[in-house]
Amino acid sequence: MEQYDHRIFSEVFITNKYGANIAQTTKTTDYYQADEIWWEKAAAEGFYIGDLTYDKSANAYALDVAVRIDCPQDGGFGIIKAVLNIQEIIDIIKEHEQEEVISKKYGQKTSADAVQEFNSFRLLTKDKRVIYSTEGFETFEKISPALEQILVGEDIDMRIDNYWIITPQKSTESLKLYSHAYSRGYKDFKGFGWILVRIQDADEIFVPVARLRLILLFCIGMLVIIIVFVGVRTSRNISSEIDKLKKATVEIGKGKLDKKIEVETKDEVSELAESFNKMIDRLKISRVARQRSETALMESENRFRTLFESATEAIFIIKDGKFIDCNPAALELFGCSRYEIIGHSPAKFSPSKQPDGMDSVKKVIEKDQLAYSGKPQRFYWQHRRLDGTLLDAEISLNVLELSSGVYLQAIARDI
Length: 415
Known about the structure:
The structure is a single chain. With 415 residues, the protein is an alpha+beta fold. Helix content is 37%, strand content 27%. It is built from ten helices and 17 strands. Strands 1, 2, 3, 4, 5 and 6 form a six-stranded antiparallel beta sheet that branches. Strands 8-7-12-11-10-9 form a six-stranded antiparallel beta sheet. A hairpin with a 5-residue loop joins strand 1 and strand 2. The protein starts with 8 loop residues before the first strand and ends with a strand.
């Protein structure tokens, strides 16, 4: 109480599970509470907050807060009720009310005059009745029709989220900024739906912005002058070295990696030249490594092609579910020409269903997906040559990585 200059809780008492008072800070009018709405809701839901009330004798607003206290040992419970004084909320608004406001001439005004002229607050209930206002008011009186019209979104020139700018009806009035915030509660508590409205003189709000704009324009102008002056001086000193860099980079772009960039200055340009020279050395190493890799890959693919062509078993290369290459043994196994195989799916050379009853097209897709996932496949397959004769084969299906991409390699053995 000494810290806040008012009583935080005007009344606190505790009941047992039967609703009888067992402890209290002040004398209550009734010692049995179980028939009260607040007690019933707190007992059932564990928590209760009542509507805001105003005590004229104490000149204070208060809320009834009740919480169920459970005893896990015997399953009993009690309920504590406190009457909370919301004067602290009013004090927060009053603190803002006392802030000094900058006048149009960048001078200072007294807090009382400034607030009345440029800044006012209104705390409203959810049904738009006044709880507190920096201007004169009656407790729980209805707000003016003009303000209610603004809150419901009518007669508004500009609305962005939770604030509006209202154009004055008279030439002698200034532009007003209306901002508001709703009480949204906390966690499971949904809040009271109270509305805090702040009305400000838009001209006074933007006075610091106008001053800052002038300062920024001046600073930017001076900065531009300095940058131009320094830029001209610097460009004269480094233009010749930049020309050397440009010519050297053109030569490097043509593939002449024996070119070295030499500059005479000891500044950022020389550091850039050194970086270029290091990059050239790395490019040389990279070119040699790439050439070796390409040579090794070409030799590997040549060996594969030799084995591919000379193999006695039928080998097919598959891409996107279609044959894109095959060896002579494959042509002999299927008894057809290369033209009749390339570009077609394995399903074309299969009956509609396999001996296990599974659809050939679906089974082809399933086996391809398993092989692409890194799981080599070996399975029985029944083919059908173009002349209609059936062919029983054992199929090996694996991923094949070449320089041109990733493929499937299928080897068919006549069984």
